[in-house]
Amino acid sequence: MPNVLSGLETPAAVIDVARMQRNIQRMQQRMEGFGVRLRPHVKTSKCLQVIDAQISAGASGVTVSTLKEAEHCFAAGITDILYAVAMAPGKLPQALALKRMGCKLSIITDSIAGARAIVAFAGGQGEVLDVWIEVDSDGHRSGIKYDDNLLLDVAQTLHDGGMQLVGVMTHAGSSYELNDAEALQRLAEQERYQCISAAERIRAAGLTCPEVSIGSTPTALSAADLEGVTEVRAGVYVFFDLVMHNVGVCQTDELALSVLTTVIGHQLEKGWVITDSGWMAMSRDRGTQRQQQDFAYGQVCHEDGQWIDGALLRSANQEHGIVTLQTPADSDLTVLFPIGSHLRILPNHACATGAQFPHYHALDANGETHIWSRLHGW
Amino acid sequence: MPNVLSGLETPAAVIDVARMQRNIQRMQQRMEGFGVRLRPHVKTSKCLQVIDAQISAGASGVTVSTLKEAEHCFAAGITDILYAVAMAPGKLPQALALKRMGCKLSIITDSIAGARAIVAFAGGQGEVLDVWIEVDSDGHRSGIKYDDNLLLDVAQTLHDGGMQLVGVMTHAGSSYELNDAEALQRLAEQERYQCISAAERIRAAGLTCPEVSIGSTPTALSAADLEGVTEVRAGVYVFFDLVMHNVGVCQTDELALSVLTTVIGHQLEKGWVITDSGWMAMSRDRGTQRQQQDFAYGQVCHEDGQWIDGALLRSANQEHGIVTLQTPADSDLTVLFPIGSHLRILPNHACATGAQFPHYHALDANGETHIWSRLHGW
Prior knowledge:
378 residues, alpha/beta
């Protein structure tokens, strides 16, 4: 492959497009095997070219973490959008504006107050909004427990208020804390069981609840059974990262995002190589700190992507990274890693590292790079 | 003050302009008292309105962490710019382009290889670049020890290669790890002494070295003496943050940056208030984790800025924050912090939190807000 990366300004966020496409295929085929739809979470890439690749591979609509992502996707022709953060009353006008332009936008709630705010706003506008109820399947964040009577109260509030109760959704985000295939499979089953149970309780109360949406990358890749589920949401699988590597759901040759960096100095007596990839490039995410293998601020690779055993981005200031190595003590770091040479750093968390960059450099199978812009802000 | 914040979309990065102006005055007056110039580091704000306020208060030029910041400042009329990261050879054409447009751009190096790359490039272009040598005054990152003979070799390389050796500069970044006034004053003296000693060694070797530039916010605010120093650089003082509060160089009423957030849910049995400020808004910076007071992802305040004792942004997902409180167990969180209400979160690290936003909302003394955009990327 021609060395097109050597001409890039650094730091740069590089997508290995072949790996990304394999990751997309892997998840899509797995979901098709289960007979469920895949609704990718675009918060990872926030990039239309990546989203297009997911849709082209067969994804059904998208999940977003902000209404700005929804607007961006809708402007690009994607109409089926689930905004997977509990609806803040102040954001309802923005959501309604999308609906009125023709977007099939779904919003979520997990409280009576939230449901009442939706009903009051939409009713005042003479509109019916598509609403899902968030289920808490693992206690890690938001949602209503499937066996809590609040579930039925919220469903009834939405129904009585004239809203369209589309379904229930959950996210077993505690899967990021696991690293054992059996435990992951158990959590995936817990996520499935609790979400379908919530749907069944709502249906048993005489209300409609056609959709059951679950998912996280680790549970989506670990589930043995998706009976009763209609769609799966997952995000970080598109790039994977060191946290997912430690969770055990990807191999090192599936990590599709890296940061290209330049060596700018050495502190030889300490064995340090200084780079221009600090935390502004990598993010401050230290997601592997509490996992079985701590990669500090990232795993260091050669410019061609070859993993350098024991080479870590040990610490990071804003625009400085400090790389430490396991080379023999008599190695000349100024020769092995001369000033001006490039390295590539695999990040802990692709969602966080990507967010530090206005655009990616997408490296395709022909060895050419393309600028793919990404969203920033709200 | 009229409640202008209630109308803002969240999350939003809010600057308290009155506090910011007091912070600027405090540092400027202190440096004028020492008779040294202040060259603010604009990596904290990356915002022209903030930089303008610093220049208007008397600052002499700016320090930048990227050449994009340099281009942005130069386009706004600021000509005296120090790029305070060791020069990567691949970035020399970008630096030269700035110089040829009339920018008085200073670059830095701390190695023979770096100096030779500068000499080779500039010589090939028939240009003389303004170069400073970086001194390592506390072992925390880059630079040459003042008593290392490499210092004179690099100076000689630059001189022999026809470059303008402007001065020496250092940054005692380890000051962020201190929290004791005496230790800070000792480190400030170490920073000063080692940097002026480096300049004196270069001068004693018969080379020119007019400038001696030192600084970090904690040492700048702790130094007892700046004899021999010509300028001080500091960045985060413009906003301050919880890390600086723990270091002990600012009071809580000097923290000028906060994140406005909306309550989107509760988990009552856990005592959680869920907000729309996750790590995408706060950054993943956990800078207070190893300090004497750990503020988790930030200190929670009421919308008007009033500190809520014991209220912390305990954990953060991408677009969800979990607030925990020290309210009595029988408090009704849905009444105290209802869905749709606003809170303000003081960040650990203003440089990192600011970087998550495309713009600030600057709240002035009249209670009006203004959009101030900031740079993103390289």
